[in-house]
Specification:
It is a single chain. By secondary structure, this protein is an alpha+beta fold. 34% of the residues lie in helices and 18% in strands. The protein has a domain of 240 residues: DD-peptidase/beta-lactamase superfamily (Beta-lactamase, 3-Layer(aba) Sandwich), CATH 3.40.710.10. Strands 2, 3, 4, 5, 10 and 16 form a 6-stranded mixed beta sheet that branches. The protein has a 5-stranded antiparallel beta sheet with strand order 12-11-20-19-18, sandwiched between helices. Strand 18 and strand 19 form a beta hairpin. Helix 10 packs antiparallel against helix 20, helix 13 crosses helix 15 and helix 14 runs parallel beside helix 19. The longest helix is centred in the first third of the chain and has 28 residues. It is elongated, with a radius of gyration of 32 Å.
Length: 603
Protein backbone atom coordinates (compact mmCIF):
# COMPACT_ATOMS: atom_id res chain seq x y z
CA UNK A 1 0.00 0.00 0.00
CA UNK A 2 2.84 2.36 0.85
CA UNK A 3 4.39 1.70 -2.58
CA UNK A 4 1.09 2.39 -4.38
CA UNK A 5 0.62 5.59 -2.38
CA UNK A 6 4.08 6.78 -3.46
CA UNK A 7 3.30 6.09 -7.12
CA UNK A 8 -0.02 7.94 -6.87
CA UNK A 9 1.61 10.87 -5.18
CA UNK A 10 4.27 11.02 -7.89
CA UNK A 11 1.62 10.94 -10.66
CA UNK A 12 -0.38 13.75 -9.02
CA UNK A 13 2.73 15.89 -8.55
CA UNK A 14 3.82 15.26 -12.16
CA UNK A 15 0.39 16.22 -13.48
CA UNK A 16 0.42 19.33 -11.34
CA UNK A 17 3.85 20.31 -12.68
CA UNK A 18 2.70 19.77 -16.27
CA UNK A 19 -0.48 21.76 -15.66
CA UNK A 20 1.32 24.65 -13.93
CA UNK A 21 4.04 24.61 -16.59
CA UNK A 22 1.47 24.81 -19.37
CA UNK A 23 -0.29 27.69 -17.66
CA UNK A 24 3.04 29.48 -17.25
CA UNK A 25 3.91 28.96 -20.92
CA UNK A 26 0.53 30.19 -22.15
CA UNK A 27 0.40 33.21 -19.84
CA UNK A 28 4.07 34.23 -19.84
CA UNK A 29 6.06 32.62 -22.63
CA UNK A 30 3.55 32.14 -25.48
CA UNK A 31 2.48 35.45 -27.03
CA UNK A 32 0.08 33.91 -29.58
CA UNK A 33 -3.07 35.18 -27.89
CA UNK A 34 -1.41 38.49 -27.12
CA UNK A 35 -0.44 38.84 -30.78
CA UNK A 36 -3.97 37.93 -31.87
CA UNK A 37 -5.31 40.69 -29.67
CA UNK A 38 -2.69 43.12 -30.89
CA UNK A 39 -3.35 42.22 -34.51
CA UNK A 40 -6.99 43.09 -33.97
CA UNK A 41 -6.06 46.58 -32.82
CA UNK A 42 -3.03 47.49 -34.92
CA UNK A 43 -1.76 47.17 -38.44
CA UNK A 44 1.72 47.34 -39.89
CA UNK A 45 1.75 48.89 -43.34
CA UNK A 46 4.87 47.98 -45.26
CA UNK A 47 6.53 50.78 -47.20
CA UNK A 48 8.46 49.37 -50.12
CA UNK A 49 11.47 51.43 -51.17
CA UNK A 50 11.76 52.66 -54.72
CA UNK A 51 14.26 50.48 -56.54
CA UNK A 52 17.46 52.11 -57.66
CA UNK A 53 17.48 53.73 -61.07
CA UNK A 54 19.69 52.43 -63.89
CA UNK A 55 21.64 54.66 -66.29
CA UNK A 56 23.70 53.95 -69.38
CA UNK A 57 27.34 55.05 -69.79
CA UNK A 58 26.22 58.43 -71.18
CA UNK A 59 23.88 59.23 -68.29
CA UNK A 60 20.66 58.25 -70.08
CA UNK A 61 18.00 56.85 -67.74
CA UNK A 62 17.29 53.32 -68.98
CA UNK A 63 15.35 51.79 -66.07
CA UNK A 64 13.00 53.94 -64.02
CA UNK A 65 10.04 53.53 -61.63
CA UNK A 66 6.29 54.11 -61.70
CA UNK A 67 3.82 54.07 -58.80
CA UNK A 68 1.58 50.99 -58.51
CA UNK A 69 -1.21 50.17 -56.06
CA UNK A 70 -1.79 46.83 -54.37
CA UNK A 71 -5.01 46.02 -52.56
CA UNK A 72 -4.09 44.38 -49.28
CA UNK A 73 -6.34 42.35 -47.01
CA UNK A 74 -6.18 41.22 -43.38
CA UNK A 75 -8.88 38.53 -43.39
CA UNK A 76 -9.20 38.50 -39.62
CA UNK A 77 -10.57 42.06 -39.84
CA UNK A 78 -13.12 41.47 -42.63
CA UNK A 79 -16.72 42.32 -41.63
CA UNK A 80 -19.74 41.62 -43.86
CA UNK A 81 -17.81 41.75 -47.11
CA UNK A 82 -19.87 42.89 -50.10
CA UNK A 83 -17.82 41.09 -52.73
CA UNK A 84 -19.82 42.31 -55.72
CA UNK A 85 -19.50 45.96 -54.67
CA UNK A 86 -15.75 45.61 -54.15
CA UNK A 87 -15.17 43.86 -57.46
CA UNK A 88 -17.11 46.54 -59.31
CA UNK A 89 -14.58 49.08 -58.06
CA UNK A 90 -11.41 47.21 -59.01
CA UNK A 91 -12.50 45.38 -62.18
CA UNK A 92 -11.23 41.93 -61.19
CA UNK A 93 -12.62 38.50 -62.08
CA UNK A 94 -14.64 37.04 -59.19
CA UNK A 95 -13.13 33.53 -59.41
CA UNK A 96 -9.61 34.93 -59.32
CA UNK A 97 -10.50 37.17 -56.37
CA UNK A 98 -12.08 34.33 -54.37
CA UNK A 99 -9.09 32.09 -55.04
CA UNK A 100 -6.73 34.75 -53.68
CA UNK A 101 -9.03 35.38 -50.71
CA UNK A 102 -8.81 31.70 -49.83
CA UNK A 103 -5.01 31.92 -49.81
CA UNK A 104 -5.16 35.05 -47.64
CA UNK A 105 -7.25 33.22 -45.01
CA UNK A 106 -4.37 30.85 -44.31
CA UNK A 107 -3.03 33.55 -41.98
CA UNK A 108 -5.93 35.65 -40.66
CA UNK A 109 -3.87 38.53 -39.31
CA UNK A 110 -1.10 38.78 -41.85
CA UNK A 111 -1.57 41.34 -44.66
CA UNK A 112 -1.92 39.67 -48.05
CA UNK A 113 -1.74 41.33 -51.50
CA UNK A 114 -5.04 40.12 -52.90
CA UNK A 115 -5.05 42.33 -56.01
CA UNK A 116 -1.77 43.64 -57.36
CA UNK A 117 -1.02 46.68 -59.49
CA UNK A 118 -4.45 48.32 -59.61
CA UNK A 119 -4.70 51.05 -62.23
CA UNK A 120 -4.61 54.68 -61.13
CA UNK A 121 -8.21 55.13 -62.32
CA UNK A 122 -9.50 52.17 -60.30
CA UNK A 123 -7.42 53.25 -57.31
CA UNK A 124 -9.15 56.65 -57.16
CA UNK A 125 -12.62 55.02 -57.17
CA UNK A 126 -11.59 52.43 -54.61
CA UNK A 127 -10.04 54.94 -52.22
CA UNK A 128 -13.31 56.83 -51.96
CA UNK A 129 -15.22 53.70 -50.90
CA UNK A 130 -12.52 51.78 -49.00
CA UNK A 131 -14.03 52.60 -45.58
CA UNK A 132 -16.96 50.30 -46.52
CA UNK A 133 -14.62 47.30 -46.66
CA UNK A 134 -13.02 46.62 -43.24
CA UNK A 135 -9.84 44.57 -43.49
CA UNK A 136 -8.85 46.02 -46.86
CA UNK A 137 -6.36 48.81 -47.50
CA UNK A 138 -4.16 50.02 -50.36
CA UNK A 139 -0.39 49.80 -50.30
CA UNK A 140 1.72 51.73 -52.78
CA UNK A 141 4.84 50.35 -54.38
CA UNK A 142 6.92 51.09 -57.44
CA UNK A 143 7.15 49.01 -60.58
CA UNK A 144 9.72 49.19 -63.33
CA UNK A 145 9.55 51.00 -66.63
CA UNK A 146 12.02 50.61 -69.49
CA UNK A 147 11.81 53.79 -71.61
CA UNK A 148 14.01 52.48 -74.46
CA UNK A 149 11.99 49.24 -74.84
CA UNK A 150 15.15 47.18 -75.33
CA UNK A 151 17.81 45.22 -73.45
CA UNK A 152 15.36 42.80 -71.83
CA UNK A 153 17.88 40.05 -71.04
CA UNK A 154 20.67 42.36 -69.89
CA UNK A 155 18.51 44.75 -67.87
CA UNK A 156 16.19 42.03 -66.61
CA UNK A 157 12.81 42.45 -64.97
CA UNK A 158 11.23 42.08 -61.54
CA UNK A 159 8.46 39.72 -60.54
CA UNK A 160 6.80 38.42 -57.41
CA UNK A 161 8.89 36.16 -55.19
CA UNK A 162 8.10 32.47 -55.16
CA UNK A 163 8.16 30.05 -52.24
CA UNK A 164 11.79 29.02 -52.78
CA UNK A 165 12.99 32.63 -52.82
CA UNK A 166 11.12 33.37 -49.59
CA UNK A 167 12.65 30.32 -47.92
CA UNK A 168 16.14 31.24 -49.16
CA UNK A 169 16.06 34.82 -47.85
CA UNK A 170 14.00 36.03 -44.89
CA UNK A 171 14.02 39.58 -46.27
CA UNK A 172 11.23 38.61 -48.65
CA UNK A 173 7.56 37.98 -47.88
CA UNK A 174 4.57 36.96 -49.94
CA UNK A 175 3.84 39.74 -52.44
CA UNK A 176 7.37 41.17 -52.53
CA UNK A 177 9.15 41.62 -55.86
CA UNK A 178 12.62 40.44 -56.81
CA UNK A 179 14.93 40.73 -59.81
CA UNK A 180 14.59 37.66 -61.99
CA UNK A 181 17.23 37.98 -64.71
CA UNK A 182 19.91 40.39 -65.91
CA UNK A 183 21.11 43.33 -63.85
CA UNK A 184 17.89 43.27 -61.85
CA UNK A 185 18.93 39.85 -60.51
CA UNK A 186 22.71 40.24 -60.31
CA UNK A 187 22.47 43.52 -58.39
CA UNK A 188 19.21 42.82 -56.52
CA UNK A 189 20.71 43.50 -53.08
CA UNK A 190 21.76 47.00 -54.18
CA UNK A 191 18.70 47.88 -56.24
CA UNK A 192 15.98 46.75 -53.83
CA UNK A 193 16.83 49.04 -50.89
CA UNK A 194 15.45 48.22 -47.41
CA UNK A 195 11.77 48.01 -46.54
CA UNK A 196 10.26 50.25 -43.90
CA UNK A 197 6.74 50.84 -42.63
CA UNK A 198 4.31 52.40 -40.16
CA UNK A 199 2.23 50.92 -37.36
CA UNK A 200 -1.36 52.13 -37.13
CA UNK A 201 -3.97 51.81 -34.40
CA UNK A 202 -7.23 50.44 -35.85
CA UNK A 203 -10.71 50.04 -34.39
CA UNK A 204 -12.78 46.86 -34.32
CA UNK A 205 -13.92 47.55 -37.89
CA UNK A 206 -10.35 47.75 -39.11
CA UNK A 207 -10.46 51.51 -39.62
CA UNK A 208 -7.25 53.42 -39.02
CA UNK A 209 -7.51 55.61 -35.92
CA UNK A 210 -3.98 56.99 -35.94
CA UNK A 211 -0.31 56.19 -35.52
CA UNK A 212 0.66 53.57 -32.95
CA UNK A 213 2.41 55.30 -30.03
CA UNK A 214 3.33 58.30 -32.19
CA UNK A 215 5.41 56.24 -34.59
CA UNK A 216 7.60 54.71 -31.89
CA UNK A 217 7.87 51.41 -33.76
CA UNK A 218 7.92 52.74 -37.33
CA UNK A 219 10.78 51.77 -39.63
CA UNK A 220 12.44 54.09 -42.13
CA UNK A 221 12.71 53.12 -45.78
CA UNK A 222 16.16 52.98 -47.37
CA UNK A 223 15.98 53.67 -51.08
CA UNK A 224 17.67 51.36 -53.57
CA UNK A 225 21.02 52.42 -54.95
CA UNK A 226 21.30 53.87 -58.43
CA UNK A 227 23.50 52.04 -60.93
CA UNK A 228 25.45 53.33 -63.91
CA UNK A 229 26.10 50.72 -66.56
CA UNK A 230 28.72 50.42 -69.29
CA UNK A 231 25.96 50.07 -71.89
CA UNK A 232 25.41 52.50 -74.72
CA UNK A 233 21.63 52.21 -74.82
CA UNK A 234 21.32 53.67 -78.31
CA UNK A 235 23.86 51.13 -79.62
CA UNK A 236 21.93 48.39 -77.82
CA UNK A 237 18.71 49.61 -79.38
CA UNK A 238 20.31 49.76 -82.84
CA UNK A 239 21.74 46.25 -82.51
CA UNK A 240 18.32 44.86 -81.64
CA UNK A 241 16.84 46.54 -84.71
CA UNK A 242 19.51 44.98 -86.94
CA UNK A 243 18.81 41.54 -85.47
CA UNK A 244 15.03 41.67 -85.92
CA UNK A 245 13.71 38.49 -87.56
CA UNK A 246 17.05 36.79 -87.03
CA UNK A 247 18.46 34.37 -84.46
CA UNK A 248 21.85 35.09 -82.94
CA UNK A 249 23.73 37.69 -80.99
CA UNK A 250 25.85 40.83 -80.98
CA UNK A 251 28.34 41.60 -78.23
CA UNK A 252 30.34 44.85 -78.23
CA UNK A 253 33.04 45.55 -75.63
CA UNK A 254 35.25 48.52 -74.79
CA UNK A 255 38.65 46.75 -74.90
CA UNK A 256 40.24 49.38 -72.64
CA UNK A 257 37.97 48.52 -69.71
CA UNK A 258 36.04 45.32 -70.46
CA UNK A 259 32.83 47.34 -70.22
CA UNK A 260 30.07 45.85 -72.37
CA UNK A 261 28.68 48.45 -74.79
CA UNK A 262 25.87 46.30 -76.18
CA UNK A 263 24.81 42.70 -75.66
CA UNK A 264 22.04 41.66 -78.02
CA UNK A 265 20.23 38.34 -77.99
CA UNK A 266 17.80 37.67 -80.81
CA UNK A 267 14.93 37.11 -80.84
CA UNK A 268 14.16 39.31 -77.86
CA UNK A 269 11.16 41.09 -76.32
CA UNK A 270 10.17 44.44 -74.87
CA UNK A 271 10.97 44.31 -71.11
CA UNK A 272 7.85 46.43 -70.45
CA UNK A 273 5.63 43.39 -71.10
CA UNK A 274 6.98 42.00 -67.82
CA UNK A 275 5.35 44.85 -65.89
CA UNK A 276 1.70 44.87 -64.81
CA UNK A 277 -1.00 42.33 -64.12
CA UNK A 278 -0.38 40.39 -67.34
CA UNK A 279 3.14 39.36 -66.32
CA UNK A 280 2.09 35.75 -65.72
CA UNK A 281 0.46 35.38 -69.12
CA UNK A 282 3.33 37.11 -70.92
CA UNK A 283 5.91 34.95 -69.16
CA UNK A 284 4.10 31.76 -70.21
CA UNK A 285 4.01 33.02 -73.78
CA UNK A 286 7.77 33.69 -73.73
CA UNK A 287 8.54 30.30 -72.18
CA UNK A 288 6.46 28.49 -74.81
CA UNK A 289 7.80 30.48 -77.75
CA UNK A 290 9.78 28.05 -79.96
CA UNK A 291 12.23 30.86 -80.81
CA UNK A 292 13.31 30.96 -77.14
CA UNK A 293 13.40 34.72 -76.47
CA UNK A 294 14.34 34.03 -72.82
CA UNK A 295 17.48 32.18 -73.93
CA UNK A 296 20.40 34.57 -73.48
CA UNK A 297 22.50 33.57 -76.46
CA UNK A 298 25.51 35.88 -75.80
CA UNK A 299 26.31 34.20 -72.48
CA UNK A 300 24.40 30.90 -72.56
CA UNK A 301 25.06 29.88 -76.17
CA UNK A 302 28.03 27.66 -75.33
CA UNK A 303 27.52 25.23 -78.21
CA UNK A 304 28.58 27.73 -80.89
CA UNK A 305 31.67 26.61 -82.84
CA UNK A 306 33.90 29.64 -83.50
CA UNK A 307 34.61 28.65 -87.08
CA UNK A 308 37.39 30.49 -88.91
CA UNK A 309 37.58 33.28 -86.31
CA UNK A 310 39.51 30.69 -84.28
CA UNK A 311 42.35 30.73 -86.82
CA UNK A 312 43.62 33.94 -85.21
CA UNK A 313 44.30 32.05 -81.98
CA UNK A 314 45.97 29.15 -83.76
CA UNK A 315 48.18 31.67 -85.56
CA UNK A 316 49.19 33.18 -82.21
CA UNK A 317 49.95 29.77 -80.67
CA UNK A 318 52.07 28.82 -83.68
CA UNK A 319 54.00 32.09 -83.42
CA UNK A 320 54.53 31.68 -79.67
CA UNK A 321 55.80 28.12 -80.06
CA UNK A 322 58.13 29.04 -82.91
CA UNK A 323 56.33 26.76 -85.36
CA UNK A 324 55.58 29.57 -87.80
CA UNK A 325 56.61 33.16 -88.38
CA UNK A 326 55.18 35.97 -90.46
CA UNK A 327 56.74 34.59 -93.64
CA UNK A 328 55.98 30.88 -93.18
CA UNK A 329 54.14 29.64 -96.25
CA UNK A 330 51.84 26.71 -96.92
CA UNK A 331 50.19 25.69 -100.13
CA UNK A 332 46.49 25.14 -100.76
CA UNK A 333 45.05 23.05 -103.55
CA UNK A 334 41.36 23.82 -103.01
CA UNK A 335 41.80 22.61 -99.46
CA UNK A 336 43.83 20.28 -97.24
CA UNK A 337 44.39 16.63 -98.13
CA UNK A 338 45.90 13.90 -96.00
CA UNK A 339 45.20 10.24 -96.62
CA UNK A 340 41.47 9.98 -97.10
CA UNK A 341 40.76 13.29 -95.39
CA UNK A 342 39.85 16.37 -97.41
CA UNK A 343 39.13 19.75 -95.81
CA UNK A 344 37.81 22.05 -98.51
CA UNK A 345 38.80 25.67 -99.06
CA UNK A 346 37.77 28.44 -101.45
CA UNK A 347 39.90 29.47 -104.42
CA UNK A 348 42.79 31.85 -103.73
CA UNK A 349 46.45 32.28 -104.59
CA UNK A 350 48.86 29.63 -103.32
CA UNK A 351 51.14 29.32 -101.46
CA UNK A 352 50.46 32.10 -98.91
CA UNK A 353 52.15 33.42 -95.76
CA UNK A 354 50.62 33.87 -92.31
CA UNK A 355 49.19 37.37 -92.84
CA UNK A 356 47.65 36.28 -96.15
CA UNK A 357 46.27 33.12 -94.50
CA UNK A 358 44.19 35.30 -92.19
CA UNK A 359 43.21 37.64 -94.99
CA UNK A 360 42.12 34.73 -97.22
CA UNK A 361 40.92 32.53 -94.33
CA UNK A 362 42.76 29.53 -95.72
CA UNK A 363 41.73 26.19 -94.20
CA UNK A 364 44.74 24.33 -95.57
CA UNK A 365 47.17 26.76 -93.92
CA UNK A 366 45.77 26.11 -90.47
CA UNK A 367 45.41 22.36 -90.87
CA UNK A 368 49.15 22.29 -91.69
CA UNK A 369 50.09 24.70 -88.93
CA UNK A 370 47.98 22.99 -86.24
CA UNK A 371 49.46 19.59 -87.03
CA UNK A 372 52.95 21.11 -87.01
CA UNK A 373 52.35 22.38 -83.48
CA UNK A 374 51.15 19.04 -82.09
CA UNK A 375 53.76 16.99 -83.97
CA UNK A 376 56.70 19.31 -83.15
CA UNK A 377 59.90 17.57 -82.06
CA UNK A 378 60.03 19.82 -78.99
CA UNK A 379 57.15 17.79 -77.52
CA UNK A 380 57.71 14.15 -76.53
CA UNK A 381 54.28 13.16 -77.83
CA UNK A 382 51.24 14.47 -79.65
CA UNK A 383 49.45 14.49 -76.31
CA UNK A 384 52.09 16.83 -74.83
CA UNK A 385 51.88 19.08 -77.88
CA UNK A 386 48.11 19.17 -77.50
CA UNK A 387 48.34 20.03 -73.79
CA UNK A 388 50.65 22.96 -74.58
CA UNK A 389 48.33 24.15 -77.33
CA UNK A 390 45.36 23.87 -74.97
CA UNK A 391 47.07 25.85 -72.18
CA UNK A 392 47.59 28.76 -74.58
CA UNK A 393 43.93 28.65 -75.68
CA UNK A 394 42.73 28.61 -72.07
CA UNK A 395 44.73 31.77 -71.34
CA UNK A 396 42.25 33.68 -73.54
CA UNK A 397 39.45 32.89 -71.11
CA UNK A 398 38.04 29.98 -73.11
CA UNK A 399 36.79 26.74 -71.62
CA UNK A 400 35.61 28.50 -68.47
CA UNK A 401 33.24 31.27 -67.44
CA UNK A 402 34.70 34.72 -67.94
CA UNK A 403 32.90 35.97 -64.81
CA UNK A 404 30.57 38.52 -66.40
CA UNK A 405 28.19 40.14 -63.89
CA UNK A 406 25.09 38.57 -65.44
CA UNK A 407 23.45 35.37 -64.20
CA UNK A 408 23.66 31.96 -65.89
CA UNK A 409 26.87 32.42 -67.89
CA UNK A 410 28.08 29.18 -69.45
CA UNK A 411 31.73 28.21 -70.07
CA UNK A 412 32.02 26.94 -73.63
CA UNK A 413 34.20 23.93 -74.40
CA UNK A 414 37.92 23.38 -74.96
CA UNK A 415 38.23 19.58 -75.05
CA UNK A 416 40.64 17.84 -72.71
CA UNK A 417 43.09 15.13 -73.70
CA UNK A 418 41.10 12.73 -71.52
CA UNK A 419 38.09 13.28 -73.76
CA UNK A 420 40.01 12.00 -76.77
CA UNK A 421 41.38 9.14 -74.68
CA UNK A 422 37.83 8.02 -73.98
CA UNK A 423 36.72 8.39 -77.60
CA UNK A 424 39.74 6.94 -79.42
CA UNK A 425 41.71 5.14 -76.71
CA UNK A 426 44.77 6.39 -74.83
CA UNK A 427 47.70 7.19 -77.14
CA UNK A 428 45.62 6.16 -80.15
CA UNK A 429 44.71 9.61 -81.43
CA UNK A 430 46.97 11.78 -83.58
CA UNK A 431 47.13 15.36 -84.78
CA UNK A 432 45.18 14.35 -87.89
CA UNK A 433 42.45 12.86 -85.69
CA UNK A 434 41.58 16.27 -84.24
CA UNK A 435 42.65 18.51 -87.11
CA UNK A 436 39.16 20.10 -87.26
CA UNK A 437 40.19 22.14 -84.20
CA UNK A 438 42.54 24.05 -86.49
CA UNK A 439 39.61 25.79 -88.18
CA UNK A 440 37.35 26.21 -85.17
CA UNK A 441 35.23 23.13 -85.75
CA UNK A 442 35.01 19.78 -84.01
CA UNK A 443 34.63 19.66 -80.26
CA UNK A 444 35.53 23.29 -79.51
CA UNK A 445 32.85 25.88 -78.76
CA UNK A 446 32.54 29.28 -77.16
CA UNK A 447 29.94 31.82 -76.22
CA UNK A 448 29.52 34.99 -78.32
CA UNK A 449 30.72 36.93 -75.26
CA UNK A 450 33.97 34.93 -75.30
CA UNK A 451 34.39 35.65 -79.01
CA UNK A 452 33.99 39.39 -78.45
CA UNK A 453 36.49 39.10 -75.61
CA UNK A 454 39.00 37.44 -77.99
CA UNK A 455 38.62 40.43 -80.32
CA UNK A 456 39.24 42.73 -77.34
CA UNK A 457 42.29 40.69 -76.31
CA UNK A 458 43.83 40.87 -79.79
CA UNK A 459 43.06 44.60 -79.86
CA UNK A 460 44.95 44.95 -76.55
CA UNK A 461 47.84 42.80 -77.82
CA UNK A 462 47.54 40.10 -75.25
CA UNK A 463 45.38 41.06 -72.27
CA UNK A 464 41.76 41.61 -71.35
CA UNK A 465 39.58 42.78 -68.50
CA UNK A 466 36.65 40.69 -67.30
CA UNK A 467 33.63 41.81 -69.34
CA UNK A 468 30.99 43.55 -67.20
CA UNK A 469 27.85 45.65 -67.57
CA UNK A 470 27.90 47.70 -64.38
CA UNK A 471 30.31 50.59 -64.12
CA UNK A 472 29.36 52.25 -60.84
CA UNK A 473 26.97 51.84 -57.89
CA UNK A 474 26.13 54.91 -55.80
CA UNK A 475 28.02 55.09 -52.48
CA UNK A 476 29.55 51.67 -53.06
CA UNK A 477 33.09 50.49 -53.69
CA UNK A 478 32.98 48.83 -57.10
CA UNK A 479 34.09 45.22 -57.61
CA UNK A 480 37.86 45.40 -58.10
CA UNK A 481 37.96 42.13 -60.01
CA UNK A 482 36.72 44.06 -63.05
CA UNK A 483 39.81 46.26 -63.14
CA UNK A 484 42.32 43.43 -62.90
CA UNK A 485 44.25 42.77 -66.10
CA UNK A 486 44.29 39.17 -67.41
CA UNK A 487 47.42 38.46 -69.43
CA UNK A 488 47.51 35.69 -72.00
CA UNK A 489 50.47 33.34 -72.47
CA UNK A 490 51.29 34.87 -75.86
CA UNK A 491 54.11 37.43 -76.19
CA UNK A 492 52.61 40.85 -77.11
CA UNK A 493 55.00 41.20 -80.07
CA UNK A 494 53.16 38.48 -81.99
CA UNK A 495 49.83 40.31 -81.95
CA UNK A 496 51.06 42.86 -84.48
CA UNK A 497 51.26 40.11 -87.11
CA UNK A 498 47.74 38.85 -86.42
CA UNK A 499 46.41 42.40 -86.28
CA UNK A 500 47.91 43.01 -89.72
CA UNK A 501 46.14 39.91 -91.03
CA UNK A 502 42.84 41.07 -89.55
CA UNK A 503 43.39 44.53 -91.00
CA UNK A 504 43.87 42.96 -94.43
CA UNK A 505 40.60 41.01 -94.03
CA UNK A 506 38.70 44.31 -94.17
CA UNK A 507 41.09 46.79 -95.73
CA UNK A 508 42.88 44.44 -98.16
CA UNK A 509 40.67 45.13 -101.16
CA UNK A 510 39.02 42.59 -103.50
CA UNK A 511 40.05 39.06 -102.58
CA UNK A 512 39.99 39.73 -98.85
CA UNK A 513 37.09 37.96 -97.16
CA UNK A 514 35.37 41.11 -95.83
CA UNK A 515 36.77 43.92 -97.98
CA UNK A 516 33.32 45.26 -98.91
CA UNK A 517 32.42 46.25 -95.30
CA UNK A 518 35.39 48.61 -94.94
CA UNK A 519 34.52 52.02 -93.47
CA UNK A 520 35.84 55.37 -94.60
CA UNK A 521 38.21 56.92 -92.05
CA UNK A 522 37.91 53.91 -89.70
CA UNK A 523 40.70 51.30 -89.77
CA UNK A 524 38.79 48.14 -88.89
CA UNK A 525 40.44 44.78 -88.16
CA UNK A 526 38.21 41.73 -88.50
CA UNK A 527 37.91 38.02 -89.11
CA UNK A 528 35.11 36.18 -90.85
CA UNK A 529 33.82 32.78 -89.84
CA UNK A 530 31.37 30.24 -91.18
CA UNK A 531 30.46 27.56 -88.67
CA UNK A 532 29.15 24.25 -89.93
CA UNK A 533 25.71 23.40 -88.58
CA UNK A 534 24.54 19.78 -88.80
CA UNK A 535 20.93 20.88 -88.21
CA UNK A 536 20.61 23.31 -91.11
CA UNK A 537 22.28 26.21 -92.89
CA UNK A 538 25.70 27.28 -91.59
CA UNK A 539 26.09 30.08 -89.07
CA UNK A 540 27.48 33.46 -90.15
CA UNK A 541 30.18 34.81 -87.80
CA UNK A 542 32.36 37.89 -87.63
CA UNK A 543 34.59 39.41 -84.97
CA UNK A 544 36.37 42.75 -85.22
CA UNK A 545 37.83 45.74 -83.43
CA UNK A 546 38.34 49.39 -84.42
CA UNK A 547 40.20 51.58 -84.87
CA UNK A 548 43.37 49.56 -85.30
CA UNK A 549 45.36 52.12 -83.36
CA UNK A 550 43.81 53.00 -80.00
CA UNK A 551 40.88 50.54 -80.30
CA UNK A 552 37.59 51.70 -78.77
CA UNK A 553 35.25 48.84 -79.66
CA UNK A 554 35.60 45.07 -80.07
CA UNK A 555 32.66 43.10 -81.39
CA UNK A 556 31.36 39.67 -82.26
CA UNK A 557 28.30 38.97 -84.40
CA UNK A 558 26.69 35.55 -84.73
CA UNK A 559 23.75 35.09 -87.11
CA UNK A 560 22.37 31.57 -86.97
CA UNK A 561 21.59 29.71 -90.21
CA UNK A 562 22.69 32.67 -92.35
CA UNK A 563 25.57 31.18 -94.36
CA UNK A 564 28.93 32.85 -94.90
CA UNK A 565 30.30 35.19 -92.23
CA UNK A 566 31.11 37.84 -94.80
CA UNK A 567 27.54 37.94 -96.09
CA UNK A 568 25.58 38.92 -92.98
CA UNK A 569 27.60 38.99 -89.75
CA UNK A 570 30.35 41.24 -91.15
CA UNK A 571 27.96 43.94 -92.46
CA UNK A 572 26.12 44.00 -89.12
CA UNK A 573 29.41 44.45 -87.25
CA UNK A 574 30.46 47.21 -89.65
CA UNK A 575 27.19 49.09 -89.06
CA UNK A 576 27.52 48.73 -85.29
CA UNK A 577 31.11 49.99 -85.32
CA UNK A 578 30.23 53.02 -87.44
CA UNK A 579 27.20 53.78 -85.28
CA UNK A 580 29.33 53.73 -82.13
CA UNK A 581 32.37 55.60 -83.42
CA UNK A 582 30.66 58.09 -85.74
CA UNK A 583 27.04 58.10 -84.54
CA UNK A 584 25.99 57.96 -88.16
CA UNK A 585 25.49 55.44 -90.96
CA UNK A 586 26.94 56.08 -94.41
CA UNK A 587 26.02 52.78 -96.11
CA UNK A 588 22.27 53.28 -95.73
CA UNK A 589 21.63 50.75 -98.51
CA UNK A 590 23.41 48.11 -96.45
CA UNK A 591 21.46 49.07 -93.34
CA UNK A 592 18.19 48.76 -95.28
CA UNK A 593 19.22 45.34 -96.57
CA UNK A 594 20.00 44.10 -93.06
CA UNK A 595 16.82 45.55 -91.53
CA UNK A 596 14.63 43.94 -94.19
CA UNK A 597 16.29 40.51 -94.10
CA UNK A 598 14.14 37.86 -92.40
CA UNK A 599 15.83 34.53 -91.61
CA UNK A 600 13.01 33.31 -89.35
CA UNK A 601 9.86 33.54 -91.45
CA UNK A 602 11.44 33.13 -94.89
CA UNK A 603 12.36 29.47 -94.41
Amino acid sequence: MEHRRSILTFIVIALAIVYVGRLFYIQVMDDTYKLDAQNNSRRFEVHHPARGLVYDRNGKLIVTNEVAYDLMVVTGQIKNLDTIALLSLINVNKDVFMSELKKAKQNRYKPYPIVKQISAENYVRLQEQLYNFPGFYVQTRTVRKYPYHCGALVLGYISEVDKNEIEANNYYEQGDYIGKIGIEKSYESYLRGVKGGKYYQVDVKGRVKGSLENGKYDKNVVLGKNITTTLDIELQQYGERLMQNKKGSIVAIDPKTGGILAIVSAPTFDPNIMVGRLVGENYKRLVNDPLKPLYNRPIQGDRYPPGSTFKTLNALVGLQEGIVNRHTMYGCQAGYNSGGLHVGCHNHVSPIDLVESIKMSCNAYYCNEFRAILDANKFPSVREGFLKWRSHILSFGLGDRLGVDLPSERPGIVPKAEFYDRVYGKNRWKSLTIVSLSIGQGEISMTPLQMANIAATIANKGYYYTPHVVQEIDDTVFDKSFIQKHQTSIDPKFFDIVQEGMYQVVQGGPGATAWFVALKDIAMCGKTGTAQNPHGADHSIFMAFAPREDPKIAISVYVENAGFGATWAAPIASLMIEKYLKDTITATWREKQILEKDFIHSR
